[in-house]
């Protein structure tokens, strides 16, 4: 079950959150290869965030998934979520950090 958790200093009042949730859910599901029904998205706005020494629009995101993450998937997730934040919340790509974790990494490393 992939979970995308985003915190931003942007005020979300007046933002079409349904479209943000819908697009993020579809994107994560498609890139990781999991059904949309398994994807959880959390979005927290008006979080005090300073990035680069200022409080201009910024965001911190984290994706945790049980499987489905590799270097290429990680690259695609960062690009796609960055695009969503830029188009839906006016957060520049240069002011967004995404941490990506696969909870199954390292479990079977001794068998490789």
CATH topology: Macrophage Migration Inhibitory Factor
SS-based class: alpha/beta
Order of helices and strands: EHEEHE
CATH class: Alpha Beta
CATH superfamily: Macrophage Migration Inhibitory Factor
**In total, how many domains does the architecture comprise?**
1
Low-confidence stretches at least 5 residues in length (pLDDT < 50)? none
Q: What's the gyration radius in Å?
A: 15 Å
Cα separation of the termini: 24 Å
Give the overall form: globular
CATH architecture annotation name = 2-Layer Sandwich
Q: How much strand?
A: 15-25%
Kindly report the average pLDDT value.
93
Q: What's the story with the biggest beta sheet? A: 4 strands, mixed
Strand order of the largest sheet: 2-1-3-4
**Proportion of helical residues:** 25-40%
Number of helices: 2
Describe the protein's architecture and organization.
This protein has two helices and four strands. By secondary structure, the chain is of the alpha/beta class. The mean pLDDT is 93. The protein is globular. It has a single domain (2-56, 66-102), classed as Macrophage Migration Inhibitory Factor, CATH 3.30.429.10. It has a four-stranded mixed beta sheet, with helices on one face. Helices cover 31% and strands 22% of the residues.
